[in-house]
Structure formats: structure tokens, C-alpha cells
Specification:
globular, binds cobalt (II) ion, Immunoglobulin-like, binds ligand MTE, 390 residues
């Protein structure tokens, strides 16, 4: 700041008069000066807002927790508005006794709190054949990470009594799309949670109020919102979302199916097209996010020259398995053009591939499960663009 600036020397209005008293904002909202920090849509992407997506503004956030009101939304039949007192969860199929729970019933089981990322399998899908959308919000914003509170799915299945022939679970939503996905019993018994809270308060309607399934590390589509029914069966149900959708057509004409886990991935959130460098050359803070459906992030490397040279970034904040991790890299920008990349590694030994490496295995026809390395071009003027280099 410059010496003698009126903002320093003059007494400002907010310094002269008292502000609004307590209680005028019973549910707090962000500052009026942060109104640009919102979820955004890409209108041409989908035919109708009822089955569409809004994207998390990753370039405006820090740390690892996504504020509830900024979590991206993906609905196949709009937002179901359900009064929690009218909500029921049913368990049927290969169980000793079929059960129906009210929300009050569910809250009498032991609870757990867990921080997990949720990534739509289609995140970065538009980038499969080359750089397309100019903003990290749109290329990587089908991603959120919140603390969920709920009951282990295992406790509910134990209560119903699993038959030994029970090998799969069908999770069904109460929304107009009646979203249904088949989940292997090993996963259901391992770490799945039937959640009623996010970030300490009741789920938001957009996130499935009053009840959603949390399927840690696995594709977002399986995290059924407005969860109303769990059926136990001996094989997968072959629903639309696991046959025509959420499959990957390979070069040999066959399709990969039941690709549940989200692969190790990272992205630089700042600088990025929506967050250019405006301070000119000199000390520059680069930051971003890394995550893996297989475990925790062990290392993130940064390149400012398009992958020729790499430096290890600084991870900061808590490191939870299957959650977002925050990284920083501070460097002196000499004002020349840059090609920024980040490459994540997880504690299971997985390394994020380049987009070319990914396409050499998966071909050109995929949409889902694009975990390729993202490149941002920084011009001499600090303007940032989505590019691909080979
Ligand atoms: N559950 C129901 N009942 N209906 C839906 O449309 N969309 C799925 C999943 N669960 C969906 C659903 C998809 S494709 C994703 S990516 C996630 O919810 C999105 O979760 P979010 O809206 O909390 O971001
Ligand atoms: Co999705």
C-alpha cells in the first residue's frame, strides 16, 4: 500500500457509525463483498437444469473443507424437498428381517465423523480430447470435501441380519430420478456411512437432505442422495447408471465397467484462468488440491516449465485418507511465460499420469475417470489459460 493513501489517513464510514446489531443475521451469510464466490453452471453442457450440474468455485477457496453452500450439485431429477419427519429408509432383500427406519431411529445408532472428498466420475470429462473449459471451476469443480456425520452402513445391515448369499447392495434415492447403484458388499461393510449431517449441520437439500450414502473414494454417482432404500442381493442390478452411463469405451470396442474408485489426481487452483497473476513479477504463491480414492496423498510435485523440471510442493493442513489435501509452492516469478503443472502421488504408490499417458491406455472415447495432469499457461501479462502440451 502507498504512504498517504486516504484509506489510511482518512477515517472511514465503517469506523464512524455503529453497524447492525446481533441477531439481524440469524443465519450468517458471506460478506456482501464476496458475492462473486458462487457455484456456476455451463448452460450449453446440458439440455435442462433438472438434470445438470453446477460447479464448485475451487479458485476462491482455501484449506480442504468445501463450504456447504458452495458444494457442486449434480441432480438427475432436480432437488427433492423432503421433510425429515416424513423420510423413511427401508432395508429389504437378502436379510433376516426387513426394516424401515425413521430419521429418529437412525440417530440412536453410534455415529461417526469423517472427512471425505466426493468427485463426480465425469469431473474433467470435457477435457478428455484436449483443453476446453477456461477455468478450474469448470475443469475440476465437480469436487467437494466436507465432514459427514452419520451411522456406519454396517451397523444397519447387522441390525437387519445379512444372509450369507448377500453379495451386493442396491442404494436407491427418493428423488424423481430414483437414482440406483449396485455396491459390492465388501465396500458396504468397510467404510460406507449413511449420513445425515455435513460440516456439522443437517445435509443441505442439494446434497440429499435428510439422508445420503457416503461411499469413500468411489465415484460420486454412487453417493446416493435422498437415500430411501437399501436392497441386499446376490449380484449387481445392471441399472442404467452402471451400464449405459459411468462406463468407459476402450479402443478395442469393449467398455470398462464398475470402475468405482477415483484415481489419484491434483490441480493447481491459483494461478488459474479465473485467478490470474495481477501483482507482476516477484514473490508468487501457487496453491492447489490433491486427492486419491485409494488413500492419503503422500507427495505433490510442481512444474512451472510444462513438466521438464519438478519441485516438491509443501502440503499443509490435515491429511485424511480419501480427502482433499492442500498444497502450496512459493516461487519468484521472473515475468516470463510459464506452463504450470501439478502431479500427485498417494500412499498406495499410485502416480497421476499425463493426459497422453492416460489416452495411450484408454483411447479417445472416454468421458469418466480423467485424472490426467492439467496444464495452465501463464502469459507475460499474468493472464492464465487452459492448454495442453505434448
Ligand atoms: N443421488 C440421487 N438420488 N440423485 C442424483 O441425481 N446424482 C449423483 C450422486 N447422487 C444423484 C445422486 C451424482 S452423478 C453425483 S456426482 C453426486 O450425487 C453429486 O453429489 P452433490 O450434489 O452433493 O455434489
Ligand atoms: Co456424478
Amino acid at each position: 500500500a502507498a504512504a498517504g493513501e486516504p484509506l489510511i489517513t482518512e477515517v472511514q464510514e465503517w469506523n464512524q457509525y455503529p453497524g447492525e446489531g446481533v441477531g439481524t443475521r440469524p443465519y450468517g451469510q458471506p460478506s456482501q463483498f464476496e458475492q462473486h464466490v458462487v457455484r456456476k453452471t455451463v448452460p450449453w453442457l446440458t439440455a435442462d437444469a433438472i438434470s445438470s450440474v453446477s460447479f464448485t468455485p475451487l479458485h476462491e477457496l482455501d484449506g480442504i473443507i468445501t463450504p456447504s453452500g458452495l458444494c457442486f450439485e449434480r441432480h438427475h431429477g432436480g432437488i427433492a424437498e423432503i421433510n425429515s419427519t416424513d423420510h423413511r429408509l427401508m432395508i429389504n432383500g437378502l436379510v433376516e428381517k426387513q426394516l424401515v427406519f425413521t430419521m429418529a431411529d437412525l440417530k440412536r445408532f453410534p455415529r461417526e465423523n469423517r472427512v471425505y472428498f466426493l468427485e463426480c466420475a465425469a469431473n474433467s470429462g470435457m477435457e478428455w480430447r484436449g483443453a476446453q473449459l477456461n477455468g478450474v471451476q469448470f475443469t475440476h469443480g465437480m469436487l467437494h470435501c466436507v465432514m459427514h456425520t452419520g451411522v456406519r452402513l454396517k451397523h444397519l445391515l447387522d441390525e437387519a441380519g445379512l444372509r450369507t448369499s448377500g453379495k451386493w447392495i442396491l442404494a436407491e434415492g427418493a428423488d424423481a430420478s430414483a437414482m440406483t447403484r449396485s455396491i459390492p458388499i465388501e465396500k458396504a461393510l468397510d467404510d460406507c456411512i449413511v449420513a445425515f449431517a455435513m460440516n456439522g449441520e443437517a445435509l443441505r437439500p442439494e446434497q440429499g437432505y435428510p439422508l445420503r450414502l457416503v461411499v469413500p473414494g468411489w465415484e460420486g454417482n454412487m453417493w446416493v442422495k435422498w437415500l430411501r432404500r437399501l436392497e441386499v442381493g446376490d449380484q449387481p442390478w445392471q441399472q442404467r447408471e452402471e451400464t449405459s452411463k459411468y462406463t468407459d469405451l476402450l479402443p478395442n470396442g469393449k467398455a470398462r465397467r464398475f470402475t468405482f474408485s477415483m484415481d489419484v489426481k491434483s490441480v493447481i487452483t491459483n494461478p488459474s484462468p479465473q485467478s490470474p497473476i495481477t501483482h507482476g513479477k516477484g514473490h508468487t504463491v501457487l496453491t492447489g488440491l490433491a486427492w486419491s480414492g485409494a488413500g492419503a496423498i503422500s507427495r505433490v510435485d510442481i512444474s512451472i516449465d510444462g513438466g521438464r523440471n519438478w519441485k516438491t510442493a509443501r502440503l499443509d493442513g490435515p491429511s485424511f485418507s480419501k480427502a482433499l489435501h492442500r498444497f502450496y509452492h512459493e516461487f519468484d516469478w521472473d515475468g516470463s511465460e510459464l506452463f504450470l503443472q501439478s502431479r500427485a502421488m498417494d500412499d498406495q504408490g499410485f502416480i497421476q499420469p499425463t493426459k497422453d499417458e492416460l489416452r495411450s491406455v484408454r483411447g479417445a472415447n472416454s468421458i469418466y475417470h480423467n485424472n490426467g495432469i492439467q496444464t495452465w499457461h501463464v502469459g507475460k501479462d499474468g493472464v492464465v489459460e487452459n492448454v495442453e502440451i505434448s
